[in-house]
Structure prediction request, 648 residues.
Amino acid sequence: MASISLRHVEKRYDDILALADCNLEIADHEFVVLVGPSGSGKTTLLRIIAGLEHASAGELYFNDVCVNDVDVSDRDIAMVFQNYGLYPHMSVYDNMAFGLRRRRMAGRQIDEQVRRTAKMLGMEALLARRPRQLSGGQRQRVALGRAIVRDPAVFLLDEPLSNLDAHLRVQMRAEILKVHRAVAATAVYVTHDQVEALTMGDRIAVMNEGRIHQLGTPGELYDAPVDRFVASFIGTPAMGFLTCRIQRSPNGMELLTDSGRMRISAVQAQALGKLGADQVVVGIRPERLAIVADQEASVSDVSVRGEVEMVEMLGAEQYVHVSTEGGSLTARVPRNQPVRVAAFVTLAASATDLHLFDHETEQALR
Amino acid sequence: MLSATSRRVALILRTVAIGIAVVWSLAPVYWMIATSFKGELEASRLDPTLWPRDATLANYVGLWSGSLPFVSFFINTVITCLATAVIAVAIATPAAYALSRGRFRLRAPIGYAILIFRMLPLVVLLAPLYLLLLHAGLLDSLAGLIVGFTTFGLPFAVWMMKSFIDAIPIEIEEAARIDGYPRWQILTRVVAPLIIPGLTTTATFVFMEAWNNLIYPLTFVTTLERQTLPAALILTFTGQFKTDWGGMMAAATLTTLPLMIAFFAVQRSMIRGLTSGAVAGA
Prediction:
């Protein structure tokens, strides 16, 4: 049982700033995902929570107790490593019992706990095996078992599914969530896969270049990204962006590119009004775009014309990548809609689907 | 695609090439062993026999009963080489661990310095070692020989152990830290069992290298009774063995035997698989 609080955490390696002013409040029992591209600092942050690395500045609290100087072994955490880190010279049973033995637990109780955990993960039959005799998925399960058998207050997972094949990954995702509910520990989960983040996290912290860009529920991140990075990182296929001119006229405000125009809502116009600039970046999610006939486009809020660069067929639907003046957009359209590469199409959307970002700072405007 | 004929030709060529290499490298060894079982007359025939006609153990028996202290040579060699292997590995393992896992400023320069010492030719260390041993009063002694062998074997042992330790994923040690174990117990309970194959392999290599070292015993040891087997073999070339080919080959075979045994020991312990399964993809 633990809440975790990071306050102004910073990490430097010589001259390189790996983490800058990271603040994070994680509630007891919560499942928080740290997501970001490689090199974003998410693993470093996790290792600081674990105590395997020390923050160069800032404080880390478990239940309002500062643990900056508390050793790894006294933090009551468990960790699942990206490459599992199992003890190769020990059986599955001993891998799980190793940590319990250190805690001077009675033999019978150790046995009981190991067997109960093994049963929960469906690996009772594997207890006598060595790690090298296991498949990737089984090793992953042992790593998970070794972490939960101790009943830790904090459960840390560093890209635990990245070495599994796609099918197994989906299966283990559900399994980890099930285990998390069963053990009721606070969990911090690191991944570079935004789909994993969206499907697993109660809340998600999106990281890039050592900074936490946004912390929020999956819905908040998807619907209201705070900046262009979060907008482009969350969602598949990724949001498309256009750089537009702001056209101010007596009867309102319009956004223009050489091949498109957008009417915007009063709220959006107000946000833009505060901005002195004459350019703005517009983001549109693929599922909000439709390929329409020209007469239909003329009545739509947003109408952008461009050339089809690539079509990805996904069975039920297709992703159409369109190159326009001002940027590239992706549209997610039904499979039966005929689209040809190199053809010109008109894309339509409504004003409420537009995400506006400051051209200079890339912050969301709202 | 290759036709069936050209595939067969390729197979024949490959077999011939391998055959030549095998015969070339094994012929002298075979000759040594075969001759060691021949009688004096047969060994010195002008039309030598490929296979000993009257195989005899007389040459081997002669080594023990002859005028030269062969048993002493043998024991001297085994003692010095074993001691060298044990001492070198005992010093090299903690050093290698520090070089592999440590995060200190001079880590890389120290590592390379050790490697450079390894690059020095054997003879370069000869004069300084001679002086050191002279002043330490260790010339003409087995202890002095062990010091000399270790000086040369240690850098190699450090680098070899370092590569074995590097191969152990750091996550295993971190997992043990999270499991609550203090550093020294991580070393004894997690790291040690994983580096035992590396330990025996390194020790064997150091042992074999010391065994093959001729120039140190020839330089540092002056009393024949304290000599090592390979050096004694050379020193007595022109003496007792002037005409006794069989005896010389028997001595040479006995010198080779421990090396062969050591080599097969390494082969078995070179199972790199011990750490497999610890991490994904291994």
Remarks:
- Confidence is low (pLDDT under 50) at residues 273-277 of chain B.
